[in-house]
Every structure is written in C-alpha cells, then in structure tokens.
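dude i think i finally got it to work??
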Amino acid sequence: MSGTVQVTPLDEFERKLAMGRRLIVKLGADPTAPDLHLGHVVVLSKLAQFQDAGHQVIFLIGDFTAQIGDPTDKSGMRPPLSPEKIAYNMQTYFEQVGKILDMNKVIVRKNSEWLSLINLGQMISLCSKVTLARLIQRDDFAKRMADHQPIAFHELLYPLLQGYDSIALNADVEIGGTDQTFNLLMGRFLQEQYGQDPQLIMTMPLLEGTDGVHKMSKSLGNAIALTDSADQAFGKLMSIPDAIVLRYYALLLHYDNEQCAQLQRSVADGSLHPMILKKQMAHAVVAKFWSSSKADEAQKNFETIFQKKDYTYATEYRLPVDFPNPAWIVDLLKVIGAVQSSSDARRLIEAKAVTIDELIITDFKATISWKSGMVIKAGKLHISKIF
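look at this
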C-alpha cells in the first residue's frame, strides 16, 4: 500500500483482502502525554484509509501498558505513570483522533479491559511462549546492554503485553511506526502460539519533528501537537528545515513521488521559492487538521508578525502585579512561558535568540527594566507583548 514502509507478509495481506471480509485493523497508543501530534497523524491517516474501505478499525488506548512504558528509543528506564496521570492524558484523545477518523465508526478499547484480569498462572503461560534471547534482540535492549545500562524486568514484559492485545482483539492487521516493528511482530508471533490466524503488520515512516533530525516527540520538544492553536501550528511548520518540507508534503498531505519530484524541480529551476513552498505546506496542513479559515488567519498573522515585524497581533501577556521591576531576564522569560527552565533560557541567550524591542540579549545574568508594550522574542516562534 502507498505511504507504507513495509507490509509483512505481503502475500498474506493480499490473501486476506481477497477473502472479501471485513478486516479488524488495530492501532494502539499509550496515553503517555495528553497531546497527540502530527507524527501520530501519519499512522492515523492509514487507519482512516482502512475505515474508508469499509474495514473495522480499532483505536486501542494502552492505559494498562502505559503504566510500564514502551522502552522503544529509550536509553534508560522510563518512570511508570500513575493511574491519575494516565486518566488525565486520555481525556483529550477522542477529540484529537476525531480530526482524522470518523469516531462513529471506530471501536475504542482500553487494554486494561483484559490485561488487568490476567492472573499469575496466565502470566507465566504467556511468558513461557517467548525466550529471553528473542526479547533482547530489540535494538534498544541490545544497546542498553552494550552500554551497561540497567533493564528492569517489567520492561521485558511490555512487548508481550502489547502482543497479547492482538490476541484479545483477534486482529487481522496492526499498524504502527517503524519504531514499533519488534512489538508488532511479537503480536503476530503470540497469535500463532495461541492458535489464531496471525495478524499482518504494516509499518509507517516516522515524521521528523521541527528540529529536522529526530522523530516527532513531545519529550524531545520538537512536536506539533493537535491541541496547539492554529497560529502555533503554522509557526512551528514554518520553522522546520527546508530539507524535510517535502517529507511533510508526502506524509501529511499524501503527495506521491511524482508530485514531490515536481515541487523539487520547481524549486531547483527557480520557479517556486522555498519560502512559498513551505508556506503552502503549512497552510494546507493547518487547513486539513484545524480548518481552512483558521489556516487563512494563521498565515496572515504569521506574515504580519514574522515577516512584516508588525507586532500588533503578538500574544499579549500581563505580568503579575508583584513581579519585580527590574527582573532577571530568565525569570521574565519563564513568567511569559517562553522557556521552561534556566538551562533553556541560557541556550537561547547564548544562541542570540532572545531580543527585547529588537535588542539582542547576550548576558544570561542581565536584569531588565520592563514596561508596558515591550516586545520580547525568544527563539523563532515565541513573541510576546507585555503590559
């Protein structure tokens, strides 16, 4: 299928489609953060294609497995989430997923429905199906062992429990990013061990975040969340490196290889400016996942603030009445929400990415006498007018 990295095994997929029956197609997501982002959209869009073709899609919320935490791409143990945090993170999922899927046709399940009921005997039986040698074939486990980093025993259970989800749902197809390949294959393997027709797996490419290097992730601070405002999303989309703009066209707007090649040729021959290419992408993405009217407004605001440097529409922030004046620049950046920590502030200041009324701040220890109407810029996107 288009837009996929791999279908395993392809001949079985063709066989199941030829049967003419409605397939059960599963996508799981652990509620480890309250926001879904555009990286999740890549796999959700594939699920929507199955939905449009008349198959039964299941959006599985891993509320039980979130208490363990998927060790994928982690160099160390991920701290378990509390039930309260998991419940909080789940609250906004349905509205966000509804931007891509028809929620009237989606079955939403939680894996606590069956995993919380497994007794010790059943758990031992499940563990007996898989060898330790197989589990530590995972790239992240192997790397941590080579680096002499600890691996907690409960982390080894994660792929087994995710695989058991496929048994509980009797899934025909499971979708995920390429970083989930091991877990998806585990589901297929365990279904065979339990006498089920094994699911085929379909892996999607990973969307790079705003840094242009790492996969989009809230924990890496490079994500564009579906809960961001349209203005925030547009600004973040405009901040991505030029080198990955066509990736966004392909993975989020479903441009095919020829369409992307044509855009690349237009940039190369000078008939399409890279800024226009990026702006058209940002507008199209915001229009698709927010709304056309919000995309129009977000583009207008971006052009006004970032290109014309007219700060009339900058975010206004009223400082607390007891906020000191003058104030340490780091405290000022924190109180307006431009940074989360002193180290973030130092990084921006050392990069000469903090300005006050167009004056570059270079001293991490600087104190600022602030006044109403002052414009503070931090990084490429955060612009605030204080009063």
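The chain has three domains: 6-204, 230-312, 315-386.
im so relieved honestly
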